Amino acid sequence: MCIRDRSTGDTPNFPPSICCIRPLVHHDINGDIPLERQRFVRTAWYNFIITVILLIANAVIAIVNAVMPDKVGVTTDDVSQIDQDTYKIHFVLSIVYLLGIVFAFIVWYWPLYKACATGNSLSYVLAFLGLGIAFGFSVLSSVGLLGYGGCGFLYAYFTQSLKGEALFIVTIVMAAMWVVQAVVFVAFIFFLRGWYKEDKASLASAKSQFTRGAARTAVTLASVSYTHLRAHETPEHLVCRLLLEKKKKY
Questions:
Q1: pLDDT in tens, 108-155
Q2: Fewer Cβ atoms within 10 A, N terminus or C terminus of the chain?
Q3: Is the dihedral of CA 21, 26, 31, 34 positive or negative?
């Protein structure tokens, strides 16, 4: 098995250029991922797309629930003021969760992609952490606690009592999809663990890679800062700097 590190030198091609958005990373499963891992990474890519669809559907259900009139026979006395406030918070959070489209790529998919492409220990650790977060989010969304933004089973019960059977059925399907997502993330962790062992990755190696990366970042920032200061140096500053350097020599 040949691990190919093509993290540098490749032209960014993802995300696609749209309006003000410009490609930031190079994404090429066939070119970057070893052949025996391509099916797994491609499955993860499809699941990322499904995650995007679920987040959008989750928000749409919350929006429909907000604008849809209550079913016949429901009065304002049927729902307490606390439930109404919780319902509003739930609606707002479901919209905020759309940011998960970006975070899903950054938090779990891209670390998984890089881990399978390079065998990098730090990427593996970040991928496991990201998949754990994704699993927890899917479980929370499937439960559907009111006020937490996820259109799950409890939220479906809430919609049935106020909005009727049609939206209830749609929300139940949404909750079931979140359950499937949670199971898929567990499967990803299991399969990724196999590649982790095969590449002989370790927490110690990940810690070392993180330390080296942080040191390089600090040096780069210091260099950029010094270059920026020199670029804005006035004649007076130049004279003072030269005098100080001359004084140090003697």
A1: 999 999 999 999 999 999 999 999 999 999 999 999 988 899 999 998
A2: C
A3: negative
Residue 56's pLDDT is what?
Answer: 96
Q: Which residues of 55-69 are buried (b: 16+ CB within 10 A; e: fewer)?
A: beebbebbebbeeee
Given a contact cutoff of 8 angstroms between Cβ atoms, the answer to whether 201 and 192 are in contact is: no
The CA–CA distances, whole Å, from 13 to 33, 79, 83 equal 16, 50, 46
Q: How many CA atoms lie within 13 A of 172 on its CB side?
A: 8
User: Can you tell me which residue has the tokens 């997502």?
Assistant: 181
Residue type, 217: T
The CA–CA distances, whole Å, from 14 to 17, 30, 101, 120, 228 equal 8, 15, 14, 21, 30
Task: Pick out the chain residues at pLDDT < 70.
Answer: 1-9, 70-84, 209-210, 212-250
